[in-house]
Automatic annotation (TrEMBL):
InterPro entries: MenaQ_synth_MenD, THDP-binding, Thiamin_PyroP_enz_TPP-bd_dom. Binds 1 thiamine pyrophosphate per subunit. Its cofactor is Mg(2+); Mn(2+); thiamine diphosphate. Catalyzes the thiamine diphosphate-dependent decarboxylation of 2-oxoglutarate and the subsequent addition of the resulting succinic semialdehyde-thiamine pyrophosphate anion to isochorismate to yield 2-succinyl-5-enolpyruvyl-6-hydroxy-3-cyclohexene-1-carboxylate (SEPHCHC). Residues 224-238 have a biased composition (Polar residues). The lineage of its organism: Bacteria, Bacillati, Actinomycetota, Actinomycetes, Mycobacteriales. This is 2-succinyl-5-enolpyruvyl-6-hydroxy-3-cyclohexene-1-carboxylate synthase. The gene is menD.
Amino acid sequence: MTNPKVPEVNAPQLDVPLSPAMTTALVIVEELIRSGIREAVVCPGSRSAPLAIAIAEADRVGRLRMHVRTDERTAAFLALGLAKYSRRAVPVVMTSGTAVANCLPAMVEATLTHVPLMVLSANRPLKMVGTGANQTIDQVGIFGSHSVCTRTLDQIGETCAQRGITEGLPADQVDFLRNTVGEVIAAAMHPTEGGGVQLDVPLREPLVPEDSAVVGLGASEIQESLSQGQHQATNQEQPAGPAGTQEKLGRPGGSEVDMPTVRKTDTDAVAIDLGKRTLAIVGEVTDRAWGRRIMEQLSGVPTMAEPVAPDAPEIPVHSAAAAMFTADTVAHGEYSAVTRPEQIVVVGRPTLHRPVARLLADPEIRVVVVTDTNTVTDVSGTAAAVTRAITLTGEVDQQWLSVCRAISDMGAEAVRRTLEESDEFTAIHAVAAVADSLRDGDAVVLGASTTVRDASRAGLPFSGVAAYASRGAAGIDGTVSTAAGVAFAHASSEPHAMRAPRTIAVMGDLTFLHDIGGLNIGPLEPHPDNLLIIVTNDNGGGIFETLEPGREQLRRFPDGSEMFERIFGTPLRANLGELCAGFGVPHRLVTTPTELALAIEEHAELGYLSADDDAIGSGIAVIEAQVSRAGRRNVEKAIREAVTPR
């Protein structure tokens, strides 16, 4: 049985000579733009040259903005930050081989947090895998379960080779290409199952055109052709594409991609009886608007919200006192109160606090998980219900409200008093100073280790301040680049503002050094506007001071040789000021909370740090807060003792 011939649909010859590889790249980029993509990150490479050139052309004419980075891991996290803030898919382009593997950490984070990151990997023809060909690995599907959709365009090159096509693409392959791009983007943007995706693009030589002038001409012809719903082709013979091609999600006629939408009915809503002692715990959500609506519904319920929650609660409960809820009753003098909740409403994915984990594991507490995605937070398997919508019955008991407010005040007071009484400048002091400086409209990127926890102690979230942290896998990698991506997208959200809105990134020294390459932005590249990075430098891994390895009995071996410092504390000799200078980034060192507060205020007023001759006009500045790691252990202990149930 022969396939029926696909009818010609206005498929003229291209007026300019472009190879199948270059034509493929131009059609991909055209389809990306049609699908709403406005930012793209490119890494230099030979096999990816057609994709890079096509994106550069789109950038040249203002159809999208290109960011070039020389490190694929940094590039992927930059794309992650752009996508995290904008909620648009952002592609990162790289050549074949280990360049693709470098994107794995960002893909893990993207899929766990449903961020639409797109790895657009160039490749050799797939038949070259396993032959010893240079820079060729089995990279299709390299991300495994960390990609929600993986597709390859290998058949395009194979088809052109079999048909002897040396210029342009046949119409059926344009259809296949466009459908595949649409399918991948739809998967990345899916409201409940979205995340990182991979589109692998095997390209055959010749890769680049003879003259740069033909790139713009070819791009214009393809744009015009696809805008008219035409199939761009260069061969009069138009065989049918592979079976099933037409059923794939895409835009073969130039129409909009069909994006799934979240179910809006409340028919599956779970009832919450507020007559029971109810505590809400809010973590990160994918759809912030949805999260704010749920929090508004729960506005009368005491709520412990993590810094990355979509909004500040009406009745906040300070996280420092979370352990108080794990006791049945708490006594103070002749008074006692029941403090254990009867039910907990979990919104999104909270991950920060151990007492919260103990509460959610308590089989005596009814746990209702409210989620906007198919990711369910139920670590202990105790959830009585999982839903996307809730209805409320009954009224909140005023005595329970009073108890929760008292517990919250106890936590806030413990933090405030401990910081005031401490003689040492710690990272907790520094983050508190940052929190005090925040203004409406700021975006904040927090290191995923201790910094986000310190921000919780400082009282975040705040209304009008959007906070982000890579808590999907809770890795410290890529934080500088993620912050740059957030800063770019944050500035783009207010394109007509006289001055870009401020993005503040706060992280420890190890987190900063782990992604120091994120500062490596070339002179021809766009730079973030108004990005202030604050590094709490305690010369090593501060979080381990407060975890089990930090116990006094584990700090040294019996012979006196170092154990904790070498394998957990990991002190460094890095001079952050000189490193920043090497990347052309202004830097200031502060050693007290007052100095830090003044430096932040100065940057807010001037837009730069005045002490640096090169600061004016620079979009990034770094303030290094030199803090005490040992002091952190003392502060943590004092806070914990003040809020431990007795």
